[in-house]
Automatic annotation (TrEMBL):
Transmembrane segments: 21-42, 48-66, 78-106, 136-156
Ranges where the Signal transduction histidine kinase internal region domain occurs: 176-252
A GO-annotated cellular component: membrane
Single Gene Ontology MF annotation: phosphorelay sensor kinase activity
Pfam family, one: His_kinase
Top-level taxon of the source organism: Bacteria
Key words of the record: Kinase, Membrane, Transferase, Transmembrane, Transmembrane helix
Native species: Pedobacter caeni
Protein name: Histidine kinase
Gene3D superfamilies, alphabetized: Histidine kinase-like ATPase, C-terminal domain
Amino acid sequence: MNNPNKYSIYPNLWARIGLHLLLWLLLYIFTMIICKGTFAIGMLSAPVLLYSLILSFVVICNHYFLSYITLPFLEKRTWLWTVPLQLVMVYIFSVTVIILSIAFIAKSFPEYPTLKLQSERYYLYNFANIFNYKSFSWFISFTLFFNILSFLLKFAKNYYETNQDKISLIKEKNQMELNFLRSQIQPHFLFNTLNNIYGLVIENQKASQSIIKLSDLLRFSLYESSQGEISLQREISFLTDYIILEQIRHKDDRVNIEFDFDNIEEKSIKIKPLLLVNFIENAFKHGVNANINYSWVKIILTSKKNVVHFTIENNKPKKKHPTKQETGVGLRNVRRRLELEYPERYDLSIKETSEVYEVKLTLRINE
């Protein structure tokens, strides 16, 4: 069984489970040594074996709670106000189980006087005793150290895997840019040629506007898209130019292209470049261009409180055996980019019927 994360330190799921079990076994043995010294009785005696098991259970529960519930809050920097509450819950759980367990074991094994002394020393007379100095010192002695260590190990592991993911994204992006540039025939020459053609057709307003917009698209693709992030306003300008060129290209009555980019609350927020255009390209490629009958495309882009909503719909060509529209490298690359650049900060919904193809994308932008 392979690990779904290719950058995980574990080769597979069974190796991960095995390593966890080994570490918890070592923890159990270590707590047995501590309990032997604390209670001044044999390490293999029933009270030591039982109480060591309970201590290990508390540490293990705390570890998985902190690693898989508390740590994600810290990494995402969301709902941070709940983190202190979670830590208090861990403390109350640990102290309650540890102290009640020693009382139970002391009562079950009265032949060991040291157990009775420990039980009387840390006895919980009421709920407030959970927060006194004795209870806190017991918590520090038996659980806090192990949980801090395991938490730091988990944090370091997550940081390593996330960093490897980012490095991979940078390498993939650089390779894509390199491949793109290699496919170009002297970009500067192309720009100069477009300007020359513009001078020849300047009297034809539509032709000259088309050349200007095409030049802007090329300039954006070659230069601005290499930036890590761009303003939403610049991305909207790029998308608008692209759509207008498609409108000019499909100027006959059989094609209806609608787009609405007006409901933008904050145009200065930063997003990753060239994410949305792939969905628009897909709509024209598999919808308008493949349809010999009436076709339409509807595009809506809105933003509010650092959340961007993008929706695009297109009708599909009528075929006897309808095929899936979501094909090709483009959309696969978009999905991969979303996973790497907006981890757990995006929602992508793709719905397809025999007549309509719809994409809805939500991006939660960090402030």
